Every structure is written in C-alpha cells, then in structure tokens.
C-alpha cells in the first residue's frame, strides 16, 4: 500500500508547525520572551512553541485521519492508541534546548506507524529549510531529492554524531581518537543527517522515547542504513504503555555489526529524566 497521501499530509502539517515555531526562534540568540521557557523536569525544557506546534500537528493530522491513534511528547498519553492499527508518533520540537539558545539544530518529527512498524516519516528543520521524507519501500528524500547513507565499512575514524549533553557529562570520552565526533542535540535531526550521508553513524546509551526516533528510524532504513538497540534488535512502535528504550544505535549499514561489537561491553547510562527509586 502507498502512503503518499499520508506523507503529503505530514509535510503540510510540518510546514505549518515550522512557520509557527519560527515566530519564536532567534538565530544565534535566546528565543523571544513569548516562548515562555519552563521545565518539565531536570534538563528537560518546554516552551510555548512546543505546545503550539503540538496543537497544530494534532489538529491537522487527526482532522484528516480521525481514526488514527496519537502519541506525542507534549500530549498526555491516551492509551487507546494501543488499540489502533495506525498511529501518529510525533515530537513537535526535537532539540528544544537548541531551539531556545538559537542553534538551528532542531526538528519537527512525524512518524506514521502501522502494526508496530513505521511506514511514513517526515522530519523538518524549518531553520535550515530541510524537509526529510520517506515511505516504506520507496527510499528517502531531502527536499524531494533522493539521498543515501555513506558506504564506509571501517569503523575506526568514522564520522559520528554525539549527544551534546552526553558529551558534557563525559560519556563520549572513551570514543575520542577512535571516532570523529561532532556534537548535536536533536536525535531526530541526527538520524536525518545520517540518512543524508553527512555522517556515518550515531548512537545513544541513554534512554529515548519512541517519538524521538520513530520517524528517523525509517529515514535511515530507507536510505540504506540500520537502526537497532544495543543488542541488535529492531524496534517496534506503539506496542506497549512504556515508550522509552534504553539504547539506540544507528549506522550507514556496513558499519553496524562492528559498531554493535564495539558497544557490547559499554554500560548503559542512567535515565536522568526520571527520579531514581
């Protein structure tokens, strides 16, 4: 089945949300005061732009597909989504911290899941004018042009996108000199850049939510790469109440086996967005 109609709906919604959030964004500067920056928890900011984008995406996507389920970072979880065969999986702004400080490394992420598998994806960075799209079996595109992951097969010296916050905590020190590291916040945007072939790999051993990487996982897969957890297991979405996964490993494809082997004895990081028991 083709999901081109859904993809057009997704890109329309993403562009509308992008226009809305750019009213708050200030390149190289802190967001406007109207953004009303607050915090949902430790190192987890929220702005009015996140909420406005969430409301807009919810309205546009469910207006045309009211029978689809909904899972979004900024909406209270409605577990009826588990009863739906198709579900929108949305992050209104992935990379809110970057958005707040005026760094154009954030994205609107929309994935469509059918029976646990992503079938259409849209990641839009409005500050850079980059629209990444994919449907299952039809490849990945950037602004309507086909893109592909790199062909590199040697892990040493590979270009790798590392988390800005994890790097600050020293969690990437063990990989310095082994991988060519570039720091970035948004996991959705990192996956999009990996699909574009701008970098060879990215991974995190810190828990992530399904909305962080659902769309990006399809972009990478359709561009020729692989996305699994640290144990090499593929992801299925909207299968349980819990939305978090302990790890995420993404590569161009040829590097995946070597990367999983390298990470085998590296410990997982604690979940800092949840209080310890």
Which properties best describe this structure?
277 residues; alpha+beta; Fructose-1,6-Bisphosphatase, Chain A, domain 1; D-Maltodextrin-Binding Protein, domain 2; 2 domains; 7-stranded mixed sheet; 27% strand
CATH topology of the largest domain: Fructose-1,6-Bisphosphatase, Chain A, domain 1
Provide the structure class. alpha+beta
CATH superfamily of the largest domain: Fructose-1,6-Bisphosphatase, subunit A, domain 1
- Report helical residue fraction: 25-40%
N-to-C SSE string, H for helix and E for strand: HEEHEEHEEEEEEHEHEEHEEEH
CATH architecture label name of the largest domain: 2-Layer Sandwich
Record the strand order, biggest sheet: 3-4-5-6-7-8-9
* Number of strand segments: 16
CATH class of the largest domain: Alpha Beta
Roughly how many Å apart are the termini? 45 Å
Continuous helix count: 7
- The low-pLDDT segments are none
> Which term fits the overall shape?
globular
In short:
With 277 residues, the protein is α+β, with helices and mostly antiparallel strands. The protein has helices at residues 4-22, 48-64, 96-101, 164-168, 187-196, 210-222, 256-263; strands spanning 38-41, 44-46, 69-72, 86-94, 107-114, 117-125, 130-135, 140-142, 145-147, 159-163, 180-184, 201-204, 208-209, 226-228, 244-245, 248-251.
Task: Characterise the protein shown here.
- The protein has two domains: 4-147, Fructose-1,6-Bisphosphatase, Chain A, domain 1, CATH 3.30.540; 159-263, 3-Layer(aba) Sandwich (D-Maltodextrin-Binding Protein, domain 2), CATH 3.40.190.
- Helices cover 28% and strands 27% of the residues.
- It has helices at 4-22, 48-64, 96-101, 164-168, 187-196, 210-222, 256-263; strands at 38-41, 44-46, 69-72, 86-94, 107-114, 117-125, 130-135, 140-142, 145-147, 159-163, 180-184, 201-204, 208-209, 226-228, 244-245, 248-251.
- A seven-stranded mixed sheet has the order 3-4-5-6-7-8-9, with helices on both faces. The chain has a five-stranded mixed sheet with strand order 11-10-12-16-14, sandwiched between helices. A two-stranded antiparallel sheet has the order 1-2.
- Strand 5 and strand 6 form a beta hairpin.
- The longest helix has 19 residues, at 4-22.
- It starts with a helix and ends in a 14-residue tail after the last helix.
């Amino acid at each position: 089945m083709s999901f081109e109609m859904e993809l057009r709906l997704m890109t329309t919604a993403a562009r509308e949300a992008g226009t809305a959030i750019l009213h708050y964004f200030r390149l190289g500067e802190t967001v406007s005061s109207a953004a009303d920056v607050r915090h949902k928890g430790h190192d987890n900011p929220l702005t009015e732009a996140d909420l406005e984008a969430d409301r807009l995406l919810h309205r546009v996507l469910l207006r045309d597909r009211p029978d689809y389920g909904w899972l979004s970072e900024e909406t209270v979880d409605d577990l009826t989504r588990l009863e739906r065969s198709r579900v929108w999986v949305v992050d209104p702004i992935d990379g809110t911290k970057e958005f707040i400080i005026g760094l154009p490394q954030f994205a609107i992420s929309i994935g469509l899941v059918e029976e646990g598998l992503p079938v259409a994806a849209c990641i839009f960075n409005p500050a850079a004018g980059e629209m990444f799209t994919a449907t299952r079996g039809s490849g990945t595109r950037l602004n309507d042009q086909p893109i592909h992951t790199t062909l590199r097969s040697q892990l040493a010296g590979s270009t790798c996108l590392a988390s800005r916050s994890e790097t600050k905590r020293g969690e990437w020190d063990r990989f310095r000199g082994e991988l060519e590291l570039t720091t970035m916040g948004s996991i959705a945007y990192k996956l999009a850049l990996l699909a574009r072939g701008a970098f060879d790999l990215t991974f995190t051993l810190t828990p992530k939510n399904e909305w962080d990487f659902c769309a990006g996982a399809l972009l990478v897969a359709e561009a020729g790469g692989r996305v699994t957890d640290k144990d090499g297991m593929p992801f299925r979405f909207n299968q349980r109440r819990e939305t978090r996964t302990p790890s995420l490993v993404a590569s161009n494809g040829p590097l995946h086996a070597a990367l999983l082997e390298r990470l085998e004895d590296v410990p997982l990081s604690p979940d800092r967005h949840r209080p310890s028991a």
